[in-house]
Design goal:
This protein is mainly alpha-helical. The protein has two domains: about 35-50 and about 235-300 and about 315-320 and about 360-443, Cytochrome c-like domain (Cytochrome Bc1 Complex, Chain D, domain 2, Orthogonal Bundle), CATH 1.10.760; about 65-235, Cytochrome Bc1 Complex, Chain D, domain 2, CATH 1.10.760.10. About 40% of the residues lie in helices and about 0% in strands. The protein is built from 17 helices and four strands. The strands form two sheets. The chain has a two-stranded antiparallel ribbon with strand order 1-4. The protein has a two-stranded antiparallel sheet with strand order 2-3. Helix 3 packs across helix 9. It is globular and about 75 Å long. The protein starts with 6 loop residues before the first helix and ends in a 20-residue tail after the last helix.
Length: about 450
């Protein structure tokens, strides 16, 4: 207080003005939270849903953008008879209400799958499918679970017969006549290159031309499913509303859309935490493969509650190292006999990296769209919450094989909470007509 000032008056002024000054300070601080440099705005624009480019074509699938094929694929996606026991459909694991995931650590069909169920939302933008990228198109991916004994567990002859009995008219309008499946001598009820010994034996006994005819129907099922899945794309959420406000200079809407912690988490996400090194672009993924140093799994338990030692495959999953070889050897790849693409359209496959330390234990970077609603996380569903996931990135343990691409974030607890708060804003309904998200009329 200056000499000569009255102490009572000074205290009175402080009592009166103090709260107002504090409020002004907080308001100014809150406003600064929503101030972004031009460089930061450029980074935000790159993540904005409005920056999503047009859907890339799939030259390996001639009906990828055919509305009739999409309609057939829609029906098949929700068709439980597309399984050995008539109870498992694609939607059993890829549930529309869960953003096309299932909320389980590992997929469950007729058995338990090796890996967590990834979302199909926006997957048509990716050149590689599955966590390890072992297929190079959505249609090639779609047919794998149909014959997997832990998933749909059926065989291609039975699936072709289902098409003939239930979907003949739409199928033949798109692909032409079905083979004469009513001839049981040529086309057994159950046949296919599958684990079931009876179906496998029947498959080997079929004439090569008849095997090709059935496989063509099987492939066309996959291409129809892919045509449907291409309609399932990410939509705008609260994060996108915030970015739009920032880019428009609309601070009022920005403050109304994000609180201080969410904005701080976003600043960490695009800045010091370097999350956008991998989670880049409007889908928040670069569609590449990385080893992030996941530790060995602990032993499991059997049905009786006794410890069950894990197999080598469960202890360590080679990921992309094995996946890329499988993709190259797969008959349904872009260069294979079932592809509609000319060889020059298959650059991703032709020039794929096939060896080297970076592939060992590497898995595909998932999209973060609706990440808060699609737990658990990682290829094996090991992390039940975003907090667990962020703690792993914060400590970044060394890889047990290969080389981890992570470096420890070293963030404080409140900073991790801020990133989690931001991640919860990357929500948004699927960008598709609502009719695509439910089964069509029963056949």
């Amino acid at each position: 207080m200056r000499p000569g000032a009255h102490p009572v008056v000074g205290r009175s002024l402080l009592a009166v003005l103090g709260p107002a000054l504090l409020a002004l300070g907080l308001t100014a601080c809150g406003a600064r939270v929503h101030e972004w440099s031009l460089e930061e705005q450029s980074r935000l624009r790159a993540l904005w849903i409005e920056s999503l480019p047009p859907l890339p074509p799939d030259p390996s699938n001639a009906v990828a953008d055919d509305p009739a094929a999409a309609a057939l694929g829609h029906a098949l996606f929700f068709e439980p008879r597309l399984s050995r026991d008539g109870r498992v459909s694609c939607a059993s694991c890829h549930q529309p209400a869960r953003h096309f995931t299932d909320g389980k650590p590992r997929g469950e069909g007729l058995g338990t799958a090796r890996r967590h169920t990834p979302s199909i939302v926006g997957a048509s933008y990716s050149p590689w499918q599955f966590w390890d990228g072992r297929r190079d198109s959505q249609w090639a991916q779609a047919i794998v679970p149909l014959e997997d004994p832990a998933e749909h567990g059926g065989d291609r002859s039975a699936y072709a017969r289902l098409i003939a009995e239930r979907y003949r008219e739409p199928y033949e309008a798109i692909f032409g006549p079905l083979p004469p499946l009513e001839d049981r001598r040529r086309f057994p009820q159950h046949a296919g290159p599958v684990a079931d010994s009876g179906a496998a034996t029947a498959w080997r006994a079929m004439a090569a031309a008849d095997r090709r005819a059935v496989t063509q129907v099987f492939v066309n099922i996959g291409k129809s499913l892919a045509a449907y899945e291409r309609r399932i794309q990410p939509g705008a959420g609260r994060f996108d509303t915030y970015v739009a406000a920032v880019l428009a200079g609309d601070r009022q809407t920005a403050r109304r859309t994000f609180d201080a912690d969410e904005a701080a988490g976003l600043r960490l996400f695009i800045g010091p935490a370097r999350c956008t090194d991998c989670h880049a672009g409007p889908r928040l993924t670069n569609d590449s493969f990385h080893n992030i140093g996941l530790p060995l799994r602990e032993s499991g338990w059997d049905a009786a509650g006794k410890p069950r030692p894990l197999s080598i495959e469960e202890l360590f999953d080679p990921g992309r190292e094995a996946g890329v070889i499988e993709a190259i050897e797969d008959a349904s790849n872009c260069l294979g006999p079932w592809s509609d693409a000319p060889p020059e359209a298959c650059a991703e496959l032709r020039f794929a990296r096939v060896d080297g330390d970076p592939l060992v234990g590497a898995f595909k970077v998932p999209s973060l769209r609706n990440v808060a609603e699609t737990a658990p996380y990682m290829h094996d569903g090991r992390f039940a919450s975003l907090a667990e996931l962020l703690q792993h990135y914060n400590t970044a343990p060394l890889a047990i094989a290969g080389h981890s691409d992570l470096t420890p974030l070293g963030l404080r607890d409140h900073e991790l909470s801020q990133i989690e708060a931001f991640l919860r804003t990357i929500d948004g309904a699927v960008s598709a007509d609502r009719s695509w998200l439910a089964p069509p009329a029963q056949r």
